[in-house]
Specification:
single chain; 347 residues; eight-stranded parallel β-sheet; 15 helices; 46% helix; binds zinc ion
Amino acid sequence: MTSEPRPLPPGVEAAVAAMPKVELHVHVEGAQRPDTVWAMAQRNGVALPAPTPEAWRAFYRYRDFAHFIQVYIAASRAIRAPRDFTDMLVAFHADQAAQGIVYTEAFLSASLYVEGFDQGAVLEAIAEGLALGRAQSGVVVRLIPDIARQVPDTQRAVLAFTLAGQKAGVFIGLGLGGLEAGYPPALFTEVFAEARRNGLRVVAHAGEGAGAESVRGAVEALGAERIGHGIRCLEDPGVVAMLRERQVPLEVCPMSNYRTGVVAADAPHPVFAMLEAGLNVTVHSDDPPMFDTTLTDEFRFLARGGVSPERLRTLTVAAAEASFLPDDERERLVARVSAQGGRAPGV
Ligand SMILES: [Zn+2]
């Protein structure tokens, strides 16, 4: 599927590489390179489920979605000290800048940090990472802590942590991630309602590990303003119609779906049918080193599937419009990514 991608025509490749980009669906922990995670684990005396850095890298070849979650959690457990958050965020900004990403909203797997961490110190370390990363790279990153569905007991603590970070100016919203099958939206309605009442923006992964009803539940029961993935909405024309009518932004991450087996290796990716259906598609990388991808690679994948550079730019504009920035900043971002060459004033 993606092992030997054919090169794009030079003009298309240059346009894709040069395009100023906006990323709304990427996990800070999943964006760390395997060697960085290995070094952090060594420094913190945390045992990874692999004896050597090479074996750790090999562990990233997933058998299925549950195996991916296992690797993701093992990698996240290497994070123990406040400085890890600073280092992780500085590295994250640099990797985003390298692909021409000008603005990012990124998830932080907060269910993993609600016990055993000094939350005040973590929030300070995060603020430092955001400030340093922005100063060094020019990229603007905003963070959305998310609840891992498979540990619903952490949801109140994640909300409290997120609200504390909102006051400190480092968090803008609340997300829902992790294992979708078996953990429906109904388990999280109260916490999401409270988040919305407190001015947090809300987003949920749905229609990835579970079907179209999960997407409907995320929109209708949780009030999710955007849907992470959402690809399985195609299983129910009624859900497709609802998403089209409301133009709910869908954060589609094609390589992620192939790597976790949500989409079969020899199947066409649903993103093409979603575009065809008039849905509000945006494109993202999810966990780039874990899925051996980048946002630029995701755009290359769409271009190989026949999506023109002009259309790719409209998907970036859609992402800018779907961002959780205040109105004036969002308008500046939209102008920046709409302009040829991205020369308009930035956020
Ligand atoms: Zn995700």
